[in-house]
């Protein structure tokens, strides 16, 4: 039984020149696994993630033939039902933690607030919050608990963000470029935390990124998106046997430390890929 | 070259002029979708037209009335649709001529106060340090005076009259623009495009004038437009107190003052100019709100 | 050609001091491409900004052809040294057309034949004349970065400081911009100093590089050292490993 089923997902934004479809018929299923969605800017990868959580920013609109999460049809949920799901059973981590944390409240208090809306008592919430900070490899949880978001470095902030999303132990986590703002060495540590949650708690993870190399080393399966469509789906381990010229092009145009290719191969976009 | 819609909206303009006009046309298209703003724009446009064509539009002499036959006629009297005042002058004609004074006040204050505010604010913001401290403390001092009282003091010192009223209002009007321009400059001055200009060897004056001022301009214009209502009210207030326009000039504030002695019996004498002030203030406020929506750089992607 | 000797940069915030660069030295030869690698907070961009006068030099020397560079920097210095910034969305004035972006340096420096130079600069970075009167918001990130390169090169400098010129771009666009930079260097005999967090980009572009951490130069390597993973310090080895991607086998201690 898959956790999430998406069939023919479409996201449309009205513009002065008429409606623009940024996601054009995306279908996939997700089990308790790591699924990577890779694409360049404008490929619709972020809008796909948002649409699943019902967070398509207005005036955009999302439609799908099927959009079900653990047998719940997400298309017809009321605002109240969404509140019961979002932040509890499905969560999202964004690229920049600064936009998702309340700047005038210590992070510990914010964590406790989430826990208390889930029905935990005061003392229990504090205990659990500290545990979660510890779980995301924060060395001094007591200090971070009292810190305001601006007092944290990017890597710390992102870990707090992940702790925040995880206090409720969601079944599905959508991570939209969660590590792009971080240094490579910290990036790896954050990924390790996510990895542990998938393997130990059986969480389903959708990892949205522009970084093909990173996704292929971290995820089980990869969807490659181009111009609002999935052009190729493959096992991460078989990335180098990619068939679609776009995937191949993306792989080829990256400079490699131990290779000397001057000039780098570039991507000749074929208009047919978008059809 | 034809001035068609396609030419204006072209993604590949071929001259400086086309690029600028195209940009202006896009802003206009944005602005046009806002109904209230268009309504405000219309009011201001009507004000301008009235001022320009006053001699042709006014049915009577605004300064001299007939004390014997036309004194204090009520509105809707034939030939005197808004009534007449105690001097027997047609109120409609006085309002139409008064629009010239109102517009002059508005335009002159904008022309005097805006550049001063921009210059002080951008200079203070760009240089920072002691320049900033000196300029902004001075601004704070001016800002601390109550607007009308300072204007009163100036007019009292320089003598009553509409010219002095304009100078007095301008002196009290610029500090908020300086504050605003400074705040905008602080967000701009450390940006990469300013750094890039420094790396071309540009002088500070050039950076402020060609790179920072154009970016502060739109928010200052919006603020000035929104302040117009207040400026008109201050001018009318000075007129009302007898320190602005002098009789027999048809200034709206002075007209209200003239009508207040017999407000109960002849309500229209004070009410008509009051309505005019109200309408024009509203027009500028709506226009300012609309401009903010299309010009505010923070809303643009 | 460009020599940085024991450079120190200290920022003062009231009574607090932040020592962003704490004694960094390197030499860049004529025609060479030199890389500075480090993570955020390592002071790598500050080194570039200090060279071109955007950050205060509080110690050490920077010399160009053996002569101390003037402080404050003169317009003549900027004819020899130009910079390309990281974020193409922040480095172009939002209200200026490409035409005015490119003509501004020419008019500041008093160049002649401006129309001709602008046309040529646009061709050189692979954009046609159709872009000349557009505004930055009508351009994609890659096109904007090409304009930024054109703006830097229009003054015909000898040294180009590149501050993460491709890190804000998509991978396929990054390849195009890197190729463009490569070609321009070969054609014009330019000298590059390039800052990046991406070892692969530096290894692709630069013959030699310095690794920075917390304001200090950790070690200097050649491209060959990097390719064969001949790093002396733990920090460089850690960077090399992390940039290879995620590895599931080794759990942290």
TrEMBL record, chain A:
Compartments (UniProt record): Cell inner membrane
PROSITE patterns cross-referenced by the UniProt entry: ABC_TRANSPORTER_2
Any GO molecular function: ATP binding
Transmembrane regions listed in the UniProt entry: none
SUPFAM superfamilies in the record: P-loop containing nucleoside triphosphate hydrolases
ABC transporter domain span: 4-252
Membrane topology: Peripheral membrane protein
InterPro entries from the UniProt entry: AAA+_ATPase, ABC_Ni/Peptide_Import, ABC_transporter-like_ATP-bd, P-loop_NTPase
SMART domains attached to this UniProt entry: AAA (SM00382)
Keywords: ATP-binding, Cell membrane, Membrane, Nucleotide-binding, Transport
Family: Belongs to the ABC transporter superfamily.
Official protein name in the record: Peptide ABC transporter ATP-binding protein
From TrEMBL, chain C:
SUPFAM superfamilies, per database record: P-loop containing nucleoside triphosphate hydrolases
TM region(s), chain numbering: none
Membrane topology reported for the UniProt record: Peripheral membrane protein
Domain ABC transporter span(s) in chain numbering: 4-239
InterPro entries, A to Z: AAA+_ATPase (IPR003593), ABC_transp_ATP-bind (IPR050319), ABC_transporter-like_ATP-bd (IPR003439), ABC_transporter-like_CS (IPR017871), P-loop_NTPase (IPR027417)
Subcellular location: Cell inner membrane; Membrane
Pfam annotation, one family: ABC_tran
Catalytic reaction equation(s): glutathione(out) + ATP + H2O = glutathione(in) + ADP + phosphate + H(+)
Recorded GO MF terms: ATP binding
EC number: 7.4.2.10
Gene3D superfamilies for the chain: P-loop containing nucleotide triphosphate hydrolases
Major subcellular site: membrane
Domain of life the protein comes from: Bacteria
Keyword set, alphabetical order: ATP-binding, Cell inner membrane, Cell membrane, Membrane, Nucleotide-binding, Translocase, Transport
Similarity comment: Belongs to the ABC transporter superfamily. Glutathione importer (TC 3.A.1.5.11) family.
Assembly, per entry: The complex is composed of two ATP-binding proteins (GsiA), two transmembrane proteins (GsiC and GsiD) and a solute-binding protein (GsiB).
Function: Part of the ABC transporter complex GsiABCD involved in glutathione import. Responsible for energy coupling to the transport system.
Name of the protein this chain belongs to: Glutathione import ATP-binding protein GsiA
Source organism of the structure: Thioclava marina
